Amino acid sequence: MSSTEQGTSSAAPAEPTTAPESAAAPEVPESFYYVHGKDKVVHKVSAGALQHSALIHGMISNLGYTEEQAKANPFPFENIDGDILQMVVDWCNQHKGKPTPPEDTNLPKQKEKLFDLVLAVNYLEIKELLTYCCKQVAMMVKGKSPEEIREIWMIPTDAEDEAAEKEAKKRAGKEAAGETAAAAGDAK
Amino acid sequence: MPIALLKFPSDLLREVFKLCEPFELYKLSKCSKRAQRSKKLGGPKNWKIRFSSRRHVIICVDDSNYSFEQTKNPNEYFKIEYSRMCIEFPNGEAVDMFVYLLETFGIRTVESLGCDYGNFHDFSKIARFLIGRNMEIESFWIGAMKYDAFMPLMNQMNITKDFTSFFKFPSDFRLQLTKYPNKICIYYSFWYNIGQLLECTCVRIELLGSKMRNRDLNVFLKKWKKRGTFPNLRLLKVDGNNIDDRSPILGSKPPIKNVDNPTIRVSFGNEEIDDAIRVMKADGTVGWLNVKLGDVPTLKFLVANPTDTVVKDLAEDEDLEDDW
């Protein structure tokens, strides 16, 4: 995502939800930015909290937005579900200006959202949270048998992989045939 | 709650695999062929492998060991106790297990390979495999066994750090390695003569049960004193009954020790030498020599390096202890 894309976002921002602030009072007035996910709900986040995300930090570091400009141009993350982005924003706020302790009790624990959370955190380049999430994924199979691992990590059997591969080839063949027929029709 | 792991992009898979223990990764590799291929994304972990018994193969990483132990009892499959996991070896063969682990974990270095009476059949297959791939073997040891069929294999192996032998080679045997490792430690070294010692390029040489005489050791040390010789050598240790008090080594008859100041200890790493005399090489390098007689006459020669060698006066330490 480039700064141009975010600057031209035409989505009318919903009323921002202010995430809980860190207990430590900032010494200087903080700047805030706005982000939204697939659900268009805009989150107001301080620049300090956003520093956890290498992606967003890189985007905002040279913008020099005023408060009004920032509010008018929320960063759109259309590939991230709203509830997932909320989790990420909460985590960034809780860890504003401080490193994550090894045993972090404030980390997201919703396992049913873990897959999407990992993808989002990876996309936003939040290194510490990514390590934690990946550790959660790794721990899911600790002490499990291969059959249990296959279920937990949804690993298809060889037969299922072969069937899927055949199906994909068949589909590709049909598409190629369709394109050839279309091209022949165009030529006529 | 299940999670579709293989749908993760490969960089994320790598992150997850980096945080998994080898036993979990091995079990993952058993889930499907695709899962096994994915495991190869395991990343830049410095996996190494050890083989010394036909009953188990060990993987080492980050100072931890994981032993894959053979069982034929299906009830025990994948049971983990401390750092051991029971499994069925592919085709019931240690060599197949070894190769499976090498390929699944993308291992490029053998930390230790041992050849002994009980594992010779498997060892020879593994050694041929490693030679074929020119894989690095950091340490290789030979047990006190009767067969000598390993000898042609040994000469072709790429041993880099350590060669230890408990094997009684024939008297006319000549050690022919593709390249000398950093260290050789040879028990029953009666066959290792001065000719071989003069050609040795090791950092550490330990010859136990040697037949070398004072004059051989004198020849070696005189050569060492010349500029440009044995540039790697840090330690020579030779023990054997042919070291005696009849002829000199570097001008002195054994025992050779520092009588003027008998409380000096010279050390680097785990090596130390007490009451040694100073020997100067033509280029200014300092060596420390001590020859003891007694039940097992021993020559010890340590080459100092200003970056890691400590010369300590033990008398000062004793004074300090007295003060306390």
From TrEMBL, chain A:
One protein family per Pfam: Skp1_POZ
Gene3D superfamilies: Potassium Channel Kv1.1, Chain A
InterPro entries in the cross-refs: SKP1, SKP1-like, SKP1-like_dim_sf, SKP1/BTB/POZ_sf, Skp1_comp_dimer, Skp1_comp_POZ
Function: Probable essential component of SCF (SKP1-CUL1-F-box protein) E3 ubiquitin-protein ligase complexes, which mediate the ubiquitination and subsequent proteasomal degradation of target proteins. Regulates cell proliferation during embryonic and larval development.
Organism: Caenorhabditis nigoni
Domain SKP1 component dimerisation: residue ranges: 127-170
Listed Basic and acidic residues bias regions: 165-177
Protein name: Skp1-related protein
UniProt similarity note: Belongs to the SKP1 family.
Region (Disordered), start-end ranges: 1-25, 160-188
Stretches with biased composition (Low complexity): 8-25, 178-188
GO BP of this protein: protein ubiquitination; ubiquitin-dependent protein catabolic process
SKP1 component POZ domain ranges (all copies): 38-96
UniProt keywords, alphabetically: Ubl conjugation pathway
Listed pathway(s): Protein modification; protein ubiquitination
From TrEMBL, chain B:
PROSITE patterns the record matches: FBOX
Record InterPro entries: F-box_dom, F-box_Sdz-33
F-box domain ranges (all copies): 2-34
PANTHER family linked: F-BOX DOMAIN-CONTAINING PROTEIN, F-BOX-CONTAINING HYPOTHETICAL PROTEIN C.ELEGANS
Protein name in the entry: F-box domain-containing protein
